[in-house]
Design brief:
The structure is a homodimer of 162-residue chains. Chain A contains 6 helices and 6 strands. The first copy, chain A, is an alpha+beta fold. In chain A, a hairpin with a 5-residue loop joins β4 and β5 (113-116). The termini of chain A are far apart. Chain A binds a DNA duplex (25 and 25 nucleotides) through α4.
Amino acid sequence: MVNSRNSISEQIDLIKRQLVDKGYKLTQQREVTVRVLLEHEKDHFSAEEVFLLVKEKFPEIGLATVYRTLELLSDLQVVEKINFGDGAARFDLRSTDGSHHHHHLICTECGSVEEIMEDGLLRLEQQVLHQYGFAVTDHRLDFQGVCRECRQKHKLSEQAVG
Amino acid sequence: MVNSRNSISEQIDLIKRQLVDKGYKLTQQREVTVRVLLEHEKDHFSAEEVFLLVKEKFPEIGLATVYRTLELLSDLQVVEKINFGDGAARFDLRSTDGSHHHHHLICTECGSVEEIMEDGLLRLEQQVLHQYGFAVTDHRLDFQGVCRECRQKHKLSEQAVG
DNA sequence: ATCCGTGCAAAGTGTTTGCAGCGTT
DNA sequence: AACGCTGCAAACACTTTGCACGGAT
């Protein structure tokens, strides 16, 4: 979830700076990979999915390079690596300011994953600090449930029956 | 997190009933696996770790059987399968009443995983329903941060320096 | 000339599956 | 006899690694 006020090229510049500052280069392959992530902010792609999209723009690229790029971006806190338990890690752009306060709505019926920007955990985090002495630096909150569309389908089929 | 008022054998009986009700048997292998989970409620073992402990009590068992048992128990909602992103799924007993309101405190320094029983998400879940039409049935909340012990170490080393 | 980054293929790791055999009903 | 369950090994899916080559400084 990158600051949407910036254009894609501005955001790439920003990421380039982060790479160069740490002694890495923004190669063609890395740029294309970042671009794909930027163009699909709302999705949570697996490495394989990123690879396929990157390959469309840069056919010579190898899967290993995409893995290495995603790992690098992960280390640099540019992307977040999440595992929803379906066998493959998924990758998300982080917000530019480093904060990370989106949660996931995972539909148990259709498998869709929606991102929401609520937070509302500050009180809980303070409680954790007081009660357990644990200083929270980040969190991950996933909700399982039924999304609006699937609930709608249920209602429709109920009406059809009733 | 099974109701701790019950003894282990009572809890096994309970789980046996759940299995038998759905047409499954509580074989030796399954019982030993469940027993290991019960004896290590506070841990979050990988399949391999469960396997090694089970093997101590039942050396003939195969790894595949442990995987199949854990999957079965997962399907039956007896255990929860969690992925902390370290490459292997981990397995947790669920509470007997089916509710599941523990969160995880994952220390980024020593890797420890503590379970806490707070909830405090009801308001947030209601908000999600109103705002996104998403009906929450379950959630998962992990906090990354620094645990009490590691914070203590920091303080000590600071004192040593200062 | 050096050195980082790449593509490819091979290896690694966690997990699932096919199958023959066993035990219980 | 039927059928669920098991152990073993093979297959699988995702990810990492070794290595020689290429491109930029």
